[in-house]
Amino acid sequence: MKKINCTVLNVCLILLIGLMFLGAGPEKPKPDKDWPKTYAIGSGTGSVYYAIAGGIGAISEKYLGIAGIPSKTSGAEETARLLHRNEMQFGFITPDVGYECVRGMGNFQKTGKLNVRVIMQDFPLGFNITTLDGKTINSPADFKGRVGYLSARGSPIMRIFAKEMLAVYGLQEGDLKSSLMFDTHDEAQQALITGKVDFFINCAPHPSAKWTELATTHPMKIVNIDDEHMKKMVKNVPYMFPMKIPGGTYKTMPKDVTVMAFSSIVCGNGDLPDRFVYELTKAVWTHFDEFKAYHAGAKYFSTEAVKRVSYIPYHPGAIKYYKEIGVWTKELDERQDKLLAEIGAKR
Known about the structure:
- Residues 8-23 have low confidence and may be disordered.
- The protein has helices at 2-24, 47-64, 76-84, 95-101, 156-168, 185-194, 209-217, 227-236, 274-286, 288-291, 316-324, 330-343, and strands at residues 38-42, 67-71, 90-93, 116-132, 147-152, 178-182, 199-204, 220-222, 241-245, 257-269.
- Strands 1, 2, 3, 4, 5, 6, 7, 8, 9 and 10 form a 10-stranded mixed sheet that branches.
- It is globular.
- It starts with a helix and ends with a helix.
- The protein folds into 2 domains: 38-124 and 263-343, D-Maltodextrin-Binding Protein, domain 2 (3-Layer(aba) Sandwich); 125-262, D-Maltodextrin-Binding Protein, domain 2, CATH 3.40.190.10.
- By secondary structure, it is α/β, with parallel strands linked by helices.
- Helix 2 crosses helix 9 and helix 9 packs across helix 11 (316-324).
């Protein structure tokens, strides 16, 4: 009887210890005195970024014990200014804003150079020229005399891309019969289906539900950008890069198609503590399977994208993590030094 009681007691002790470990949750790094108690993540106006910002905050709270609070701003420019003033610690900004804000250019001439640094980069967004078979649009050169949506209203980066695209193909907006802007993707897509426009341009990762839907019901095609013109555009716009849409991604597109692309970036104030930024970066990438569950777009994030963001310096804390996992190379160190020298900042 005593032997049985002893065995039962041992089992109970093992279960109790197991429950204690389960209840303890993941071990969190000990915070330094200069770490924030909570922090804000600017997500602009888009619901996608708000959801992903919520994912970053949730990962941070679970694995660092520090809650990140998604906060909507009027857009990338406001987010950059808030980051500089440390009124917001992290946020999504578009590459055009990132390029200008650290150099004190464009809309940042009055404020001067902002103390903003990259933490991580999000999914690539293709600049997709969408048309239908039968419209005889096979390249931007065919826009002459046509009606189309060149960009979404209120999207400066789409306007920059559209202007550059027309220029390298020897066109101006006035060469189109009518150059329009849309408010919603559905508006642009419906106009294409009903024949009101010959094409529309909108940004998205691939595959994307809206394009899948259109290809299911209509002979949709996304226009390919040839290598010669792509190289000219990438040279002129430092945050543009080519992106391949593999053949078969959409029902009506059996062959590979190359489009212009860009990606927004998650930035932080340059004076955030190095170790805090390191631990946050590490937490997101180490627990990426959890992170990407917060929004379908999060699965397109990639550590390899550090090689693409060549126009704004990275935060030292983020660099430390990327070096640890082997994606940050000697060439990227050299790129970082050149960028810091260009904007007159210290390493």
